[in-house]
């Protein structure tokens, strides 16, 4: 029901309007009456009125003054004027106040009906507009995180440089980011990001990213003012407002970064390296701070991962850059041909020690050097007519190199590969033949009880990629690694079921299954019987 307030200093007019028009037919109830503008305003303060029908000329406060007050305080109320024929000047003033309509005295009921229908139509239209506005506000609120991220990305890309535009966008997005304040940035980079992200489904990584940002934002609120957002698939950026001295703010940034690193490792089992920038004096300079923090985070190349790294690490090493040249190539080939593992280790230590001095863009040059060494070793094996699974495609080798982010990881990968080359050459001289399938089976026999054992882990043990070791194993045995692993586990389970009285849950865990339902399903597929039936038949 819509509520109507009648305002007229003539009781007869009010009574006529009240009693001679069917207000209920239009969903209107008369909520009150007043004989002047002052009394009307008092009623308006305490009742939710939708329509005011008011005389123009009244004592104390006339209809024009009343309408002005209504427009100031109650903008959604619809106003209809009642006027005598000699109030033309007054009506001109009234219509300038956005009144809905006017009716002349004496009131004609047909004219009143048309005015009421017009008012009701406008009220209903206002309700629709209000619903649309509310829906838009809800949708905007739901999209606010995305809009904020777009704004943050524009900041670090230098797409907004005007202080006025920055202030306006910040206010619209309800962000406390004054243009003239000082700020710092932390860049949170996921370690071993390629393998970490590949271990999740797309939906799973979205959930992890949400959790990273949620944990980061809670810790930011704990330490200072600021915001966190996902700036790349494997990278998150914190924008922090600076208070106090630069030294004090720097200490707080390091404390925050350490807290974030420790909590992500604790709750999500994700290792991150965090670069901490220096302070900048205004919001539009934030991109400089971001670039610096990102460059600092990239220094895990030689400092190691799972660290909080500050601007101090940007100092260049006085030892100069390192270059992998013809001398090192000849030394590497000599060690490999002699199958001298001890000299090979010393040489690799020297090479990677030199690579660690390349602070600027060192990771890319390091990968390039590693690829050169892989090529040399593969060419040597081919030249010696050694048919070895170590001779992988260059594409697979390069993909594996790209997953390595620190000098320690590259060193470990290359040393493992080169030592295997030495073994192949030594086996060639002694007449022994390398059998990949035999080595894979040995690994499975040793580790079948580990429910985390995967083709990827097995591939690392034999220094090959997942796809390549799977291909070679199937060529030699006629079955996949996963099928063979399942076969071994089922055989072990059969032995335990027939030779022991261990509980089914314990046997399931002992042979490498974490889900007993999945274990039962596989066991029946391989034996035709459920585990409990198998035990009853063969014990």
How many strands, which pairing sense, and closed or not: the largest β-sheet?
A: 5 strands, parallel
Using the alpha-carbon principal axes, give the shape.
elongated
Catalogue the unreliable spans.
Answer: none
Give the number of domains: 4
CATH architecture of the largest domain: 2-Layer Sandwich
Name the CATH superfamily assignment of the largest domain: Reverse transcriptase/Diguanylate cyclase domain
Strand order of the largest sheet: 2-1-3-4-5
SS-based class: alpha/beta
Protein model, in words:
This protein has 539 residues and is an alpha/beta fold. The protein has 4 domains: 2-128, Response regulator (Rossmann fold, 3-Layer(aba) Sandwich), CATH 3.40.50.2300; 157-314, Alpha-Beta Plaits (2-Layer Sandwich); 326-430; 436-538, Arc Repressor Mutant, subunit A (Orthogonal Bundle). The protein is built from 23 helices and 10 strands. It has helices at residues 11-19, 37-46, 63-73, 88-95, 109-156, 163-172, 193-198, 202-223, 246-268, 286-297, 300-303, 326-337, 341-355, 362-383, 394-402, 407-430, 436-447, 455-461, 466-477, 481-499, 504-510, 516-527, 531-538; strands at 2-7, 28-34, 51-55, 78-83, 101-104, 183-190, 226-232, 235-241, 272-276, 308-309. The strands form 2 sheets. It has a 5-stranded parallel sheet, with helices on both faces. Strands 7-8-6-9-10 form a 5-stranded mixed sheet, sandwiched between helices. Strand 7 (226-232) and strand 8 (235-241) form a beta hairpin. Helix 2 packs parallel to helix 3 (63-73), helix 14 runs parallel beside helix 16 and helix 18 crosses helix 19 (466-477). The longest helix has 48 residues, at 109-156.
């Amino acid at each position: 029901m819509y509520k109507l307030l009648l305002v007229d200093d003539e009781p007869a007019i009010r009574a006529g309007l009240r009693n001679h028009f069917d207000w209920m037919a239009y969903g209107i109830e008369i909520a009150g009456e007043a004989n002047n503008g002052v009394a009307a305003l008092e009623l308006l303060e305490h009742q939710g009125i939708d329509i005011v029908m008011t005389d123009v000329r009244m004592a104390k406060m006339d209809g024009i003054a009343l309408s002005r007050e209504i427009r100031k305080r109650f903008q959604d109320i619809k106003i209809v004027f009642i006027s005598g024929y000699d109030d033309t000047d007054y009506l001109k003033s009234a219509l300038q106040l956005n009144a809905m309509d006017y009716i002349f005295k004496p009131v004609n009921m047909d004219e009143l009906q048309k005015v009421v229908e017009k008012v009701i139509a406008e009220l209903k239209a206002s309700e629709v507009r209000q619903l649309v506005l509310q829906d838009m506000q809800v949708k905007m609120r739901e999209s606010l995180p995305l809009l904020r991220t777009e704004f943050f990305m524009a900041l670090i890309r230098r797409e907004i440089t005007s202080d006025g535009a920055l202030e306006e966008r910040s206010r619209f997005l309800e962000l406390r980011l004054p243009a003239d304040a000082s700020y710092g940035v932390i860049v949170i980079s996921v370690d071993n990001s390629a393998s970490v992200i590949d271990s999740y489904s797309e939906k799973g990584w979205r959930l992890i990213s949400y959790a990273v940002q949620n944990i980061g934002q809670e810790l930011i609120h704990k330490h200072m003012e600021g915001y966190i957002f996902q700036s790349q698939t494997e990278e998150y950026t914190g924008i922090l407002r600076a208070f106090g001295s630069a030294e004090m703010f720097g200490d707080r940034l390091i404390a925050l970064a350490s807290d974030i690193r420790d909590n992500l490792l604790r709750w999500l089992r994700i290792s991150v390296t965090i670069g901490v920038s220096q302070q900048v004096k205004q919001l539009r300079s934030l991109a400089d701070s971001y670039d610096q923090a990102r460059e600092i985070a990239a220094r895990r190349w030689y400092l190691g991962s799972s660290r909080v790294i500050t601007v101090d690490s940007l100092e260049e090493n006085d030892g100069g850059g390192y270059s992998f040249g013809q001398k090192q190539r000849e030394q590497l080939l000599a060690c490999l041909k002699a199958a001298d593992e001890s000299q090979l280790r010393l040489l690799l230590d020297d090479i990677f020690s030199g690579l660690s001095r390349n602070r600027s863009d060192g990771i890319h040059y390091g990968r390039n050097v590693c690829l050169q060494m892989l090529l040399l070793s593969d060419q040597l094996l081919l030249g010696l007519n050694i048919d070895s699974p170590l001779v992988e495609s260059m594409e697979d080798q390069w993909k594996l190199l790209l997953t390595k982010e620190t000098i320690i990881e590259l060193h470990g990968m290359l040393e493992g590969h080169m030592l295997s080359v030495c073994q192949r050459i030594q086996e060639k001289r002694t007449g022994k033949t390398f059998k990949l399938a035999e080595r894979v089976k040995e690994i499975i026999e040793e580790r079948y009880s580990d429910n985390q054992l995967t083709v990827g882990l097995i591939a690392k043990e034999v220094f090959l990629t997942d796809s390549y070791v799977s291909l070679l194993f199937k060529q030699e045995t006629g079955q996949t690694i996963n099928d063979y692993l399942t076969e071994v586990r089922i055989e072990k389970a059969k032995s335990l079921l027939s030779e022991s009285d261990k509980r089914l849950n314990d046997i399931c865990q002992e042979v490498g299954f974490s889900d007993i339902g999945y274990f039962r399903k596989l066991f029946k597929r391989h034996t035709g019987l459920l585990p409990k039936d198998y035990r009853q038949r063969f014990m």
